[in-house]
Amino acid sequence: MRWVVAACAFALASSQNVLVVYTGDSADSTLSVAQAFAAGASRAGASTKLVLASEAAYDDVRDWADVVALGSGVINGNADPTLLEFLRYWSFSDDLSGQVGASFATGGGAAAGLQPVVEELNRALLTFRLVVVGGDDWRASEGAAGVVGGRGWNGTLERAGGQGFRAATVAAALARGRTPDKPANGSAAPPSFGDAWAGAVSANMTSAGYDAGLVIVNFTSACGDPAQQKMKTVYGDFYTVLTRCDLGLEFTIAPASRGGDCASRKIGVDVDARICSACGCPFCVRDTNGSYAHPDASAGLADVLWDAPRAFSREGRRFTAHAGVAVAVGGSDDYSLKYDLAFDDDGHPAFVNISHPLWISTAARVDGFTRDVAGDAFDIPRGCFK
């Protein structure tokens, strides 16, 4: 179940996660500015997390945050050493170029290092290629900064809130970038699963008040033409469903321990013919000849609009996430499916999440993915011809 939860982690790629890392001081002044920044981001609809620099983890920067805000008190004209120590653990091997960065500072005097500290933190963020934004006021052009207890302290908190709001909205603008399926540059739509593949699919389906639990199947598919596709699904109890669209038949095969009986059904009579109108994937979605839009317009899905791809890492592996919405025929998205897919660096599918406005969602993980499929993988057992 741990992996199914992990599969959900990138499903929120289209909402904004704002991480605010700040340093402590005896008056909690920097915390007050951090809270104002987070409140501004929340007004933009973002999810926020405030963490002391001494307790911050780089994993949150790499795997969770869309916005990273750094806040520090001035220590001898420089940023707090605990925040600089946190920055030591950032990695150049991770692509943070699609994330937004922001900085703010507090100090004891207007000319005692406030602006240099903001610039120092911004320079660190730029070093890791984040898109750095200042506040929404000329007095916070590089970032909110204020003298603790000074006459303008309330203004500092207000400007920090404006900076948080701006950072979250800029991150949302960067994330939107929706393009049609199969864009001209080919960069937004996910890669194809391929005509033939096999793998273990672990999935969990939930709806309001219902949790189906974890289902694990071994799945093998060959689908160049959906009308001719072949699929084999082996469940945990070793019951097998063999779908042969090319023959117009589906077979349910019991394991040898339960007699090995085989029952057949006619596709289009006993089984809905739609199973042969698009390439299949159990508890998930996949492409049909490179497109994730349903090839049959009567199914109600005309196209898929994809967000710009987003890189992330988990447990030492790198992935590219693709979030999209299947737009219904006629342009309505009232009941459109939302897709969240992640592929590893080899172009193999790893996570497939699907959600529906009626509160039905499926989170799936694909393990052992291979495009090497044996020629006899879809042979029909002799017992099915009795």
Key structural traits:
single chain, 386 residues, alpha+beta, seven-stranded mixed beta sheet, 20 strands, signal, Flavoprotein-like_sf
Give a verbal description of the structure.
It is elongated, with a radius of gyration of 26 Å. It has helices spanning 2-8, 29-43, 58-63, 81-87, 114-127, 153-176, and strands at 17-22, 47-52, 67-75, 78-79, 100-107, 131-132, 145-147, 179-180, 196-207, 210-222, 230-234, 240-244, 249-253, 262-266, 301-306, 310-314, 317-328, 338-344, 349-356, 360-370. 19% of the residues lie in helices and 34% in strands. Strands 8, 9, 10, 11, 12, 13, 14, 15, 16, 17, 18, 19 and 20 form a 13-stranded antiparallel β-sheet that branches. Strands 1, 2, 3, 4, 5, 6 and 7 form a seven-stranded mixed β-sheet that branches. With 386 residues, it is of the alpha+beta class. The model is unreliable at 1-14 and 178-187 (pLDDT under 50). Helix 2 packs across helix 6 (153-176). It comes from Aureococcus anophagefferens. Keywords: Signal. Residues 1-15 form the signal peptide. This is NADPH-dependent FMN reductase. InterPro entries: Flavoprotein-like_sf.
